[in-house]
């Protein structure tokens, strides 16, 4: 009988990697998880701890720790390993350290015979996603970064607190870099299908103090607000990664704002940025091209320009 086992390998079992594994176990997304870390004992400990969840979850997930050979039959390899930011740094400032880590990981994964999809959560995620693509040789559709998935969720949550509507009924994306140059595509924002601008216009008194620019700034700073209080973030980004993985396994064809290698979309080729894309079993089926306003396109251009500048610092040319 043919096996339909769903397997995820996670490289990096720090707080983000272990949180992704925990989400996978509790949500029953896959049948098997492989944990890989330079600190082998840390990975073994995480695997043991997660295995002890089996009696309390609706699904049984087999969890093991080991080396890169465990990637050979994985459907998805998740990479969380990277250089953490120091005080005063941006995500982009961690590029040098993260690039060196990726250079050591990708050849080992591919040597195992891996032929699945990559999901990248390492920062700066847009450039690391692009670098992974150049190193692995897989089609661009099979290398996906978490991108602005978490940022879009943060923005919807902040907006929901003002609109007093469940964030799942709000549709708005942040695009561009997962970082300080990201922007919101307000021209496409809807609340229950109604354009946000119409909602504001129809309720001038209720929303007279709604400052959309302020919401975007709060979105950009949200991760740092958490970082300054607890040292890092992991629950939100872990759920964002698992949201993408679940959409892959279930062939949901769900539109998610992810880091995607662009090939003409939005006027760019050879650069990776956060854009909405249709995600299914084969990875990125299609990048959704929003008709941005002139101001939004200028913000996208600025974000891409910044990403290209940092890409060139590690020899990546568009």
TrEMBL record:
Allosterically activated by fructose 1,6-bisphosphate (FBP). It is found in: Cytoplasm. It catalyses: (S)-lactate + NAD(+) = pyruvate + NADH + H(+). InterPro entries: L-lactate/malate_DH (IPR001557), L-lactate_DH (IPR011304), L-lactate_DH_AS (IPR018177), Lactate/malate_DH_C (IPR022383), Lactate/malate_DH_N (IPR001236), Lactate_DH/Glyco_Ohase_4_C (IPR015955), NAD(P)-bd_dom_sf (IPR036291). Residues 7-145 form the Lactate/malate dehydrogenase N-terminal domain. It holds the Pfam family Ldh_1_N. SUPFAM superfamilies: LDH C-terminal domain-like (SSF56327), NAD(P)-binding Rossmann-fold domains (SSF51735). Residues 148-312 form the Lactate/malate dehydrogenase C-terminal domain. Pathway: Fermentation; pyruvate fermentation to lactate; (S)-lactate from pyruvate: step 1/1. GO terms for cellular component: cytoplasm. HAMAP family: Lactate_dehydrog. Catalyzes the conversion of lactate to pyruvate. Homotetramer. This is L-lactate dehydrogenase. It comes from Paenibacillus agilis.
């Amino acid at each position: 009988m043919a096996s339909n086992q769903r397997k995820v390998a996670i490289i990096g079992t720090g707080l983000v990697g272990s949180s992704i594994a925990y989400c996978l176990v509790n949500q029953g997304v896959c049948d098997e998880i492989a944990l890989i870390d330079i600190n082998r004992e840390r990975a073994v400990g995480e695997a043991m701890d997660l295995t002890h969840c089996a009696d309390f979850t609706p699904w049984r997930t087999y969890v093991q720790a080991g080396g890169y050979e465990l990637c050979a039959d994985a459907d998805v390899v998740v990479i969380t390993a990277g250089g953490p930011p120091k005080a005063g740094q941006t995500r982009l400032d961690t590029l040098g350290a993260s690039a060196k880590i990726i250079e050591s990981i990708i050849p080992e994964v591919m040597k195992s015979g891996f032929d699945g999809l990559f999901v990248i959560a390492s920062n700066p995620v847009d450039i690391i996603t692009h670098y992974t693509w150049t190193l692995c040789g897989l089609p661009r559709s099979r290398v996906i970064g978490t991108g602005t998935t978490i940022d879009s969720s943060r923005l919807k949550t902040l907006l929901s607190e003002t609109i007093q509507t469940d964030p799942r009924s709000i549709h708005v994306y942040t695009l561009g870099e997962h970082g300080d140059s990201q922007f919101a595509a307000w021209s496409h924002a809807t609340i229950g299908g109604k354009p946000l601008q119409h909602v504001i216009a129809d309720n001038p008194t209720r929303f007279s103090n709604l400052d959309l620019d302020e919401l975007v700034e709060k979105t950009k700073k949200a991760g740092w607000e958490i970082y300054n209080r607890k040292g890092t973030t992991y629950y939100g980004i872990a759920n964002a990664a698992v949201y993408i993985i679940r959409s892959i396994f279930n062939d949901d064809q769900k539109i998610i704002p992810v880091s995607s290698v662009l090939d003409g979309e939005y006027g760019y080729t050879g650069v990776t940025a956060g854009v909405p894309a249709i995600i299914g079993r084969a990875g990125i089926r299609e990048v959704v091209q929003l008709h941005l306003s002139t101001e939004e396109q200028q913000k996208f251009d600025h974000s891409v320009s910044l990403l290209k500048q940092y890409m060139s610092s590690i020899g990546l040319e568009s």
